[in-house]
Amino acid sequence: MSNSVYSQSTAAPPAEIDADGHKKDASLAEMAVKPEGDVIVDAVWGRLDDQSGPNYRNLGWIRAAVLEIKTQIGLGPLVLNVLGFVPGVIVIIVVAIIITWSDYVVGTFKLNHPEVYTLADVGFLIGGPIGREILGFAYWLEQTAIAGAGLLSFSVALNAITGHGTCTVAFVVVGAVLNVLFSSIQTLDRISIVGWVGLAGIMSSIITLAVAVGVQDRPSAAPQVGFWSPDTAVARDATFVDAINAVSVVVFAYAGTPNFFNIVGEMKNQRDYTKSVITCQAFVTAVYLIIGCVVYHFVGQYITSPALGSAGPLLKKVCYGLALPGLLVGCVLYTHIPAKYVFVRILRNSRHLSKNTPVHYIVWFSCVIVNCALSFIIAEAIPFFNDLVGLIGALLGTFICIQTEAYMWLWDEWRSPNRGTLKWKALVAMNITFIILGFFVMIAGTYGSVVAINQSLHDGNTSSPFSCADNSGST
């Protein structure tokens, strides 16, 4: 696809022929036009009919915001403990601003190019087949690794609740089975119902944690007899490796941007997408700042990892019990979305994509099961998986959550009618700056992650593959 056709944000793609041979205008597809009765023609899904197949364009903006929030909630106050209050807060706010811009660009790019459904489609539009494979693999790998981390988090919760009632691998298997069942729900509109439950669970758990650390006698990791005091600081003199790893954690916590392509692609009115992004990012940032600062203020250096165990054995069980649905839903989203990417790629331009045919179901369930199985294997077979997730986040997080979106804006707007205006020049400078910052965080974060992996291996702080050991900590 030539750059000249799609170079301007105001340019409309040429008319295309859908799977049934009908001429369609892709510029109208994003509005979910109904040219024949109740049949919707979409640039990705083709002809949609509620009675003959799932409606992949039925997601409202409020439910979209819930899904966007659920792909990101999960950051603890680690960055504050490493950098101190002021630098930690600044890092969270700066990353939030940059990622919010990236999320906004996803929506404008989708409106300009309705045929785009995932980052792989962006890669094909900009870089041809090679670009599609590079961005597609980076996108799939990051999502699948996060799903694996979600399965481990689910096992941590069950270990904490049951007091390590059985082998940890068994708990991961339980999470994988539940994950497949819920991830198989065909549309994000229906999954958003589960998303509400997950969001409520996560929010209730972290609010309970914040209240508990404020009223408890002492944190679970603090000395249980004698004097204790939380060691909090306005700013800390952290090593470069510790500082860059803390920054990478914040970037990784906001790294839901690749999922936003799928979310806007299934919205009823894609022009409402910006409202969902603003709602999402305002909510997530407020939670990160308020909960992070409160917990760090009362716990200080005695924060545990994961943070839900900071308030003692009983509250640890309570917090994990409340968080359990949210941990599962997070895993569901990071399985459903990459599975949907493979599903769409296999069946695109086929009538089976949006119709309830045997081929549709066989391909869809196969994509979900295989994707979950790979997440399970990656999570259980690699003894330093947590450090590996950090490495993947550092190596791929900025690339697919900041740099790609900045380049997308430059590619779309380079020949814009607004070219040469002060606003255009300022936005060009901003996006180029984001790309440069992205390279710095990518290189430095990768270095920090490699150092952390090497240190873990040297100290013997790695588990064995498919270990039955308790992974919830001793408190």
Characterise the protein shown here:
This protein is mainly α. It has a domain of 324 residues: Hydantoin permease. Helices cover 66% and strands 2% of the residues. A two-stranded antiparallel sheet has the order 1-2. Strands 3-4 form a two-stranded antiparallel sheet. The longest helix has 44 residues. The N terminus is likely disordered.
Strand order of the largest sheet: 1-2
Shape: globular
Order of helices and strands: EEHEEHHHHHHHHHHHHH
Strand fraction equals: under 5%
Mean pLDDT: 86
* Radius of gyration using CA atoms only: 23 Å
Q: Treating each run of at least 4 consecutive H or I residues as one helix, how many helices?
A: 14
The CATH H-level superfamily of the domain at 59-382 is Hydantoin permease
How far apart are the first and last residues' alpha carbons, in Å?
A: 57 Å
